[in-house]
Amino acid sequence: MGDFFISAEDLSHLLAMAEPVRVFDVRRPPAIEPGSRFLPGSRWRNHVTALDWASDLPRDGLIVLNCMHGHNVSQIATAVLRENGYNARALAGGVDGWIGAGLPTVAQSKLCPVDAQPGTWVTPINPGIDHVACAWLIARFIDPDARFLFAEAEWVKDIAEELSGAAIGSSGAVAEHAGELCSFDTLLREFDLNDPALAQLAPIVCAAHSNRTGLVPEAAGLLAVMLGNSIVGKTDHDVLRLGFPVYDALYARLKLAGNATGEPAADGGLGGSEQ
């Protein structure tokens, strides 16, 4: 395969490890329909204008381009970027190969149409466990160029509407509490994120958020760490900055420890043994 292509399995591993990979979907617009699925964290770009939209990207950072099948469309963009010094690779098999490997995808939502610019997401001030988890989910899987603004809960939705953004964590928002569901749950549902590891992470988030730590063993640890982050963080953005690696670590453990299939790990927890 050389270094021109990257396999779906290798890319999935890099994404699970929170490696700094930028994924761009370069399918021709006619190939993208309302029900189309996307790789987590990918953004659509025109393959013909690759040098224009890549101008702000670091040349040494890994750029992965995917089209429908991994044929000429993604290879055109990959070849052009590589010729100009970018560390670009084409996804072998494209979106079809990714889906065929049983890897998670994201549904196109009315909030993030295929040609959307970086989004503005508004969340309540003093973000806690659930809201930090939502922001992490957005940045990692939905909108890698997201910017987060904070406001009093009662004004979150109005501010988001005025800025043509999306509200999270307030009444009427795309991600809000719904019965026993946390905002994190409703965000997963909105974008139909069919990732078993995220499905396992959701009850941990809800149990920690609601201080029902007896429901899930990992919830007590998450609660303690995130409460500490809220003390250490001087601003709301600090709390996100400190919280994202916590969720990165939990997700990686669930994703890579063989426990993302729904089968319990041998130790009854996240899997593996202590060294």
Binned strand content: 5-15%
Helix-strand string: EHEEEHEHEHEEHEHEHHHH
Oligomer: single chain
Strand order of the largest sheet: 1-6-5-2-4
What percent of residues adopt helix (DSSP H or I)?
40-55%
* Cα gyration radius (Å): 19 Å
- SS element count, helices: 10
SS-based class: alpha/beta
Describe this structure in words.
This protein has 275 residues and is of the alpha/beta class. The chain folds into 2 domains: 5-106, Rhodanese-like domain (Oxidized Rhodanese, domain 1); 120-256, no CATH class. Helices cover 40% and strands 13% of the residues. The strands form 3 sheets. Strands 1-6-5-2-4 form a 5-stranded parallel beta sheet. The longest helix has 21 residues, at 236-256. The two termini are 35 Å apart. The model is unreliable at 259-275 (pLDDT under 50).
Helix and strand topology:
Elements: E1 5-6, H1 8-16, E2 21-25, E3 37-38, E4 42-44, H2 50-53, E5 62-66, H3 72-83, E6 87-91, H4 94-100, E7 106-107, E8 120-124, H5 129-142, E9 147-151, H6 156-162, E10 166-167, H7 183-190, H8 196-209, H9 219-232, H10 236-256
Parallel strand pairs: 1-6, 2-4, 2-5, 5-6, 8-9, 8-10
Antiparallel strand pairs: 3-7
Helix pairs in contact: 5-7, 5-10, 8-9, 8-10, 9-10
